[in-house]
Structure formats: C-alpha cells, structure tokens
Amino acid sequence: MQSTRSTGEMEIEYERHGDGQPLVFLHGGMAPSEYWMPVIPALDGYSAVVPQRPGFGTCLDSPTDTGADEVLDREVRYVQSLVNAVDGDPILLGHSYGALTAIEAATDTAVEAVIAYEPAVLPAEYRADAALADRMASLIQNGEREEAVKRYIEQVLHPDGIDDLDAWLAEWPAWPDCVDLAEEVVWMNRSVERYRLPDRLDVDAATLVLAGTDGPDFLRWSARNVHDALPHSRFVEFDGVSHGGPAEAPELVAAEVDVFLQK
Q1: CA pair distance 23, 50, nearest whole angstrom
Q2: SS3 212
Q3: Distance in angstroms (rounded) separating the CA atoms of residues 98 and 120
Q4: Which of these, 78, 108, 173, 256, is most buried using a 10 Å CB contact count?
Q5: Which residues contact 21 (CB under 8 A, 6 or more apart)?
Q6: Which range has the worst mean pLDDT, 31-45, 59-73, 203-217?
Q7: Predicted confidence band at 2 (pLDDT cuts at 50, 70, 90)?
Q8: What residues does the AB hydrolase-1 domain cover (predicted)?
Q9: Burial call 223-233: b when 16+ CB within 10 Å, e when fewer
Q10: How far is residue 126's CA from residue 128's CA, in Å, rounded to a whole number?
C-alpha cells in the first residue's frame, strides 16, 4: 500500500501493481478494491493503481457523516487528487458507481482515457420511481441490515433473481463485509437517485463505455445515454455478461480495453 497526502484536504491511499502507464481502477457500490484482482493480470501491460473509495476502507470520514449531495463530489475530488498524485498520464477504469465517478472526475482533470462499465446513472423514467435508498434506510433503522443489503443485491446485482438467495450469500466471501457497508450504500444510492445526466459531458479524453446484456435494463440504457452524452466515446456491449462484467468476464473485458487503448 502506498499513500500520499494531497493539498491538505484528504489522504490518498492506494495499491500499485506492476510497471507502465498508470491504470486507475475505481470499484463500485458493494465491491471492495479486491473486486479488480481477476482483471489486473489480464491488463499486465499497465501499472494498476487500486484505491479504496472514500468510506470503503480509507481514513476518510464515512459517507454517513455527510449528505447524499456531497458524496459524489467528494469521491470525484478524491479521484482527481489521486490522478495528480501518481506519475505518468493516468487512464481511469471504473465499474458502476466507480464509472460515474471516473467520468465526472475527467470533466475537470486531464487523463489519457476513460473506460466506464455500466455507469451508475438512472434514466429519467427509472429515477422518477427510484426508492432503493429509502427502502434500505428504513430496514437499517429497524435493525435489519442484512435485509437492506439483500434489496440492493436483488435490484442491482441479480435483477433476474436467485433461486436460494440465502444459500448463495452463505457461499459469498464478501457477504459479511457488504453488510458492514450498508449505510455507505444507502448514501451512494441517494446520490445516484439525485444525479441528472447532462445533455453533454465535457470530457476531452477518449472514452470507452461498456455494458452487458444480462444486467439490469436500466444500467444498459444508462450506459447508452452516457455514451451519447460524451463527445469522444465508443460503446461496446457484451452478450451474455451481467453488471459484474469486469470480474465475471475479465479476459473479455480486458481484450476490449486493450484494443481501445492501443488505437
């Protein structure tokens, strides 16, 4: 683990693996930085820079100490500070909420390129009825933390359902840590529900937007909407891959990333 202090605002902590151009991996809602471990070996031509998102293992105050409107802004500032801290011309690779953070950070920070897998942006027709954050918060207030996290898993990670969710969770090593992150996920979802995608995203860097056919429909649509809002974007959709594409199909995703970055 390496660490550096930025301009007095926050401490940046990250792991760095390998040599080459820095490729910054930004994880999503329920996934810790270890989410990227299957992908990093497939992109061994780059120097993998793997931070923890604020509130997900760093020394920063938890998002539960601030308002939903401030969460995305703080995470964007964290990424911008990280970009300034590493040597070289960084590339940002984000998944879900990390993809949204990568794109927003690139609107005001010079990066070589951005890769965004299913950015966590709600299309307007979904946002009007979005209430996941409220449902989770109510369950947590009633002492039902596990049930709160299950609602997130059912709606975002496995929208087509799992035959025996409890049995699946019992075999999932990340489950206890996910329960501990319940409040952070509530704030993250509130910020997603309030986010409005502009008609145009002022990102000068070339951007690759990725999606899978087997994830939630709203995230597939949001990926296309984000692609349309970017001035220099390429869109690729993977058949038979879900929202967890980078961990689920790392070689497939890495191959597309390599092609994009080599152009």
Answers
A1: 8
A2: strand
A3: 8
A4: 78
A5: 46, 47, 88, 89, 90, 91, 112
A6: 59-73
A7: low
A8: 23-255
A9: bebbbebbeeb
A10: 5
Q: Which of 4, 2, 157 is nearest to 95 (CA)?
A: 157
CA distance 132 to 152: 7
Cβ contacts of 209 within 8 Å, gap of 6 or more: 116, 119, 223, 224, 226, 227, 230, 233, 234, 235, 236
What is the set of domains in the chain, with CATH numbers?
A: 2-123+197-262 (3.40.50.1820), 132-184 (no CATH)
Dist. CA 80–CA 102, nearest whole Å: 9
**Which pLDDT value is given to residue 9?**
62
The dihedral through the CA atoms of 137, 198, 10, 51 has a sign that is positive
For range 156-178, the mean pLDDT: 77
Can you give the pTM of this predicted structure? 0.86
- Distance (Å, whole) CA 27 – CA 263: 25
**Tokens in use for 61?**
């105050």
Q: So what's the pLDDT on residue 63? A: 43
Number of Cα atoms under 13 Å in the Cβ half of residue 128: 2
Decide the pairing of beta strands 47-51 and 11-17: antiparallel
Span 90-109, mean pLDDT?
94
Burial class (CB in 10 A: 0-12, 13-18, 19+), 142: exposed
- Can you tell me the mean pLDDT for 199-216? 95
* CA quadruple 41, 47, 53, 56: dihedral sign: positive
- Cβ contact 207:116 at 8 Å: yes
